Amino acid sequence: MKKLFVLMMVFILSVSAIAEITFWTTETESNRQTRIKALAAIYEAQTGVKVNVVPIEENDLMTQIPVAKNSGTLPDVLEAGIEPLLLLSSENFMDQNLNTEIVNSFGDIYPGAKRLLSDASGSSFAVPFHAWVQGLWYRKDWFEGRDLGFPYSWHNILTAAKALNDPANGVYGIIIPKKANAFTQQVFTEIALANGARPMDADGNLLLDSQEMIEAFRFYKELGKYSKPGYTDVLDALKGYLSGETAMTFYSTYIMDDIAVEEVQKSRIDKFDADLVVNTGFANKMINIRPTSYGQMVGIGVLSNSKNKSDAEKFIKFLMSPKNYVYWLHMAPGGMNPTRSSVAESDEFLDNPILQRYGKAKIAEIVAALDEVERFEFIEGKVLTDMSKLDSNFVIGKAINYMFANDWTPQQTAAWAQAEAKRVLGK
């Protein structure tokens, strides 16, 4: 009887251990935690598997992961931005085989979203979970009747910026960032990639002084002639567009509630333009010699160390099943875009006060940017880890800032950026 009791206790304890997974999420805001914990409770009710939800700031991930590894407390499932996921995968923390199987099981993840989290062989570091895309938001009503075309190409963007620039009346053709920071680098990324320009090639050779890059700096400086003066930044871009101070501005899809929701818009500029959402267009890609778009991916994946990979896999699939997925995405309507095309096109996803104001066609156009989304860090299926060093040192942001501050030529700007990149990388 004593042996039987011990065996039963061992069985009960082992079942208890199996019926529990830990989920680290970088969605730390209290209102988002409420939704995530509600989904975890539903999952537990349906499966009997408890999900321990652990909110963790993304900036703390790379310091917390080694600590958790040493203490044996790594999560089973991790949700985070693309950069930490790629770094973790390079150190074999992510179960690429299982995450690839999960990606393939859906069958409708946008190609661009999948590409950003895959290596050259198509193996996925993590599952593309949701994304924001960045593009050019523009006043359609100002464009109408002026034969300006759509602001997708370099030519049309510059033509429109020049035609609609009216600084005497406090209106600028465009607002571009000029500070030495991440936002400036994000905007420049799309411009450069549209010209086939990259800071480095697939072998890690620096190309910041290439002819294509010089042309990208030249175009950026030319746009500066029709932009709001000063070292403009993200809030200038946002408030300038909302207030009618500019015809065009670069911004992510997180601008959507600012445009559409009265209380949000008033918190920015103390007034509300009810027609702005109708009069707003979105250029979901840019073209000079090639099409491209820019965005940020958030991924979710199973870690290699997980002792309960089966339930970890089921939990990810649970979160990305249509009803639960929409509930998650509606934490930030417009800002969080689905990576599954079937969900992006569904009535359930569009059943939201903010998204409804844009309408099905415009939402589809916005989310379609995920087909072309690219980043400097990835090329031909390779991850360029040196790009993270250039980004964290704001090499491109500083180059653009100095270009305007010192009135450098595009050639001088490119030469400085090349030399600074070499210094940062110790080459």
What would you call the structural class?
Answer: alpha+beta
The termini sit apart by 72 Å
What do we call the CATH homologous superfamily of the largest domain? Periplasmic binding protein-like II
Stretches where pLDDT falls below 50 for ≥5 residues? 8-17
**Mind telling me the CATH class of the largest domain?**
Alpha Beta
Using the alpha-carbon principal axes, give the shape: globular
**Number of helical runs?**
23
Portion of residues in helices? 40-55%
Gyration radius, in Å: 23 Å
Which short descriptors sum up this protein?
10-stranded mixed sheet, globular, D-Maltodextrin-Binding Protein, domain 2, alpha+beta, two-stranded antiparallel ribbon, about 50% helix, about 425 residues
Describe the model.
With 427 residues, this protein is an alpha+beta fold. The protein has 2 domains: 2-132 and 294-356, D-Maltodextrin-Binding Protein, domain 2 (3-Layer(aba) Sandwich); 133-292 and 374-425, Periplasmic binding protein-like II (D-Maltodextrin-Binding Protein, domain 2, 3-Layer(aba) Sandwich), CATH 3.40.190.10. Helices cover 50% and strands 14% of the residues. It has helices at 2-18, 30-47, 61-71, 82-90, 96-106, 111-116, 140-143, 154-164, 182-194, 211-224, 234-242, 256-260, 262-269, 276-279, 309-319, 322-329, 341-344, 347-350, 353-358, 360-367, 386-392, 395-405, 410-425; strands at residues 20-25, 50-55, 77-81, 127-139, 248-252, 280-283, 286-287, 291-302, 337-338, 373-374, 378-379, 382-383. Strands 1, 2, 3, 4, 5, 6, 7, 8, 9 and 10 form a 10-stranded mixed sheet that branches. Strands 11-12 form a two-stranded antiparallel ribbon. The longest helix is centred in the first third of the chain and has 18 residues, at 30-47.
